[in-house]
Amino acid sequence: MITIVSGTNRPESKSREVADFYKKLLLQNDTESQILDLMDLPADFTFSALYQNSGKNEQFNSLRAIMENSTKYVFIVPEYNNSYPGVLKAFIDGLSYPNALIHKKCALVGISDGIQGNVLGLSHLTDVLNYLGTHVLAQKVRIPLMKKNFMEGEIQDAFIHQLISEQARLLLQF
Amino acid sequence: MITIVSGTNRPESKSREVADFYKKLLLQNDTESQILDLMDLPADFTFSALYQNSGKNEQFNSLRAIMENSTKYVFIVPEYNNSYPGVLKAFIDGLSYPNALIHKKCALVGISDGIQGNVLGLSHLTDVLNYLGTHVLAQKVRIPLMKKNFMEGEIQDAFIHQLISEQARLLLQF
Amino acid sequence: MITIVSGTNRPESKSREVADFYKKLLLQNDTESQILDLMDLPADFTFSALYQNSGKNEQFNSLRAIMENSTKYVFIVPEYNNSYPGVLKAFIDGLSYPNALIHKKCALVGISDGIQGNVLGLSHLTDVLNYLGTHVLAQKVRIPLMKKNFMEGEIQDAFIHQLISEQARLLLQF
Amino acid sequence: MITIVSGTNRPESKSREVADFYKKLLLQNDTESQILDLMDLPADFTFSALYQNSGKNEQFNSLRAIMENSTKYVFIVPEYNNSYPGVLKAFIDGLSYPNALIHKKCALVGISDGIQGNVLGLSHLTDVLNYLGTHVLAQKVRIPLMKKNFMEGEIQDAFIHQLISEQARLLLQF
Hints:
Chain A has 174 residues and is of the alpha/beta class.
């Protein structure tokens, strides 16, 4: 099963819109997927689901189970202060170790209002995911200038559309 | 004012112990400092203090004010999944932008039970802090093998002790 | 064909010894491989084989052809100033673009006399290789404290030996 | 003394043009500087000036002396394969250690034909320079889309011009 992680808990996020777009993209490649939206995290998860409380928060456990039961992922990663959102990393910090992500495969999509498309955040996340044993598809897609390049649920720039379509196909073969 | 950030919300963390040690170290250099412990974050801060709720959580605001009113920082950064803790990044994501950290200066200390001393986490954090306008002292200190190298509130390894003492002096001149 | 890149032009390098070890390791998995030693680079390649001289240096072209004709790689990467050797990057800068490395797969081994095992260099190299379209196996192996951990052509530390043996098997399936 | 390093040995490079621009910028701030152009490296320096030959190449030694005798640097760093040029790193690998760069200060400028402005290369170089003891000014400047943003020796984009002018002033106070 492929899980698309919408990488922020911001309400009505652009990340979620891109996740919805990616789900349609995979469907066009005859592949079902599910979206895990960090909006659905329990509000106090950084205290109630980590460390000595690991495994004790049922709402968090249900998200954790989705990650454990998937074999491939797409991470939609908005640029927050030149890296991934802290909330995305805190979610990963709460997964069971070492079995949640080991020997899994994933694709990364960086998004930003600015011109970088979260290039550094994708690099940082690659370090984290590789450490956890998840292979990262070389073809990372960046969507900079989101306000212009992504409107009404669709990628507006033809070249970026080509890149993300190719990424989706490569992930299925990866 | 120098603020020492204990970079995790884990209860009774080693990071806090190292922060306490660093406070003593600065005092030996005739310099007062204060500790900001991420344990004191409101449990639901990733929802109640970010995005549309920025500025609305008084408990979070008081921590934010400490950061804004400081000019130098020491970040004690434990290694979580080959990077900084998500909670530390989420805390930074909640600071006021762009004025909280710009033109400030800091020193970084990485700690780990394993042998890396969070070398990648310090690199990732440097990317974030530089983006926010904070100069990072070149001399980063890593304390690997914490169980052996840090006991009873003191650094046990003579070379690491020398490095961290030098770092503290350099930070005061930075 | 699998090519093992010995990632420095230092004479009688430890990297070459580890490359020889890895070749034996692959053979134990019934797989032939070849070693490309950066010692064999033409001495003036950074001037005679790059930019306007790309393709004009026959000795360099023969090394370039080896890279182009391989589908999997192992990079043995010594730690030089907290990153990969400049010579390794200059060699990659001289490869034909975009076809030399795209859709290829590789495994990374970091080595160092110090305790890091070139963790940052492997991160930097992952950024470069991913950009060029090469998938990097998540399981990166670090051999720190080379003087102790690698003697007489063999890895001395049992745990590192287990990790590198597992890496070799995973690369063959990757 | 401030040395501006033109970070590639490519003939007639854009990096050199940006270095010339930066020299004028510093002069407008009443500060003399000198340019070290990697074009002036001996063609075989990666063999004749490194490892067992360290210190034996007079032409390389003269460049090395310039670095040792400077206290501040500006690095102009073109984007080669998503990082700094291998030649720049090989040059750094040939400097005397640990005294060449320790306790020095520098500013970084990334340039690229594409839209990134070498953001990853500046991150990698920061890791290297911090390791060598050089403080990196937080305010890194990126000049993407060089063909449009830099013409006839001048920065065309008003915002980038403002950023680089501010960087130069901050470096002088750093």
